Amino acid sequence: SSGSTSSEILDDYEEGTFTPASGVGSLSVVSGVYRKIGNLVHVGMKFTMPTSSATGAATISGLPFTSLNSDAARAGLVVSWNSNGQGNAGLDFLVTENATSGIFYIDGSAKSYSALSADTIYLGGTYPTVA
User: Fold this and answer.
1) CA of 62: how far to CAs of 39, 73, 96, 109, 120, in Å?
2) What are the backbone dihedrals phi and psi of residue 87, each rounded to the nearest 5 degrees, phi first?
3) Residue 35, phi then psi, degrees to nearest 5
4) What does pTM read for this prediction?
5) Based on the number of CB atoms within 10 Å of its own CB, is 22 exposed (0-12), middle (13-18) or buried (19 or more)?
C-alpha cells in the first residue's frame, strides 16, 4: 500500500489449490498449489502418472488459469521425474497456449503415456495468463 503510482500497487492476488488431471486414466497421489500475482501464475504439482500403454502424447490438464493466447508466451515448467526410483533429466512440460493444460516432451518430441507409466512427476514454475 506504499506504492506511489497505480502500477506499483498489487491489485490482483490469489492463492489456492487445484487438481491436475491426466488425459488417459487417473493420476494418483495428486496435489497442486498455485499463486496468481497479476498476469503470472506460479504453480507446483506432484502426482503419479496412471499405468498406461497408450502411445499418445502425455498431457496434464486442470491448471488453475487459462494461459495467455500467444505462442511467444508459452511457458515451460520445471520437471523432476522419478522413474522406477531413478532420477531422470531431460523431461520438459510445455503449457499449451490459451489452455489449462500442457504436454510432456523429451528432446523436443512429445513423451507418450506409456513412457511415463506409473512414474512420479513433480512440476513447478510460472506461466502467463490474462490478468
Assistant:
1) 18, 19, 12, 22, 17
2) -70, 145
3) -140, 120
4) 0.85
5) buried
Cell numbers describing residue 75: 511457458
Which amino acid appears at position 23 of this protein? Answer: G
> Containing H/E element for 37?
strand 28-37
Q: What phi, psi does 125 have (nearest 5°)? A: 155, -165
**pLDDT tens readout for residues 7-28:** 666 778 999 999 999 999 999 9
Q: Characterize 26-52 residue by residue with b for buried, 16 or more Cβ atoms within 10 angstroms of its Cβ, and e for exposed.
A: ebeebebebebeeebbebebbbbbbeb
Q: Which residue has the cell 506409473?
A: 118
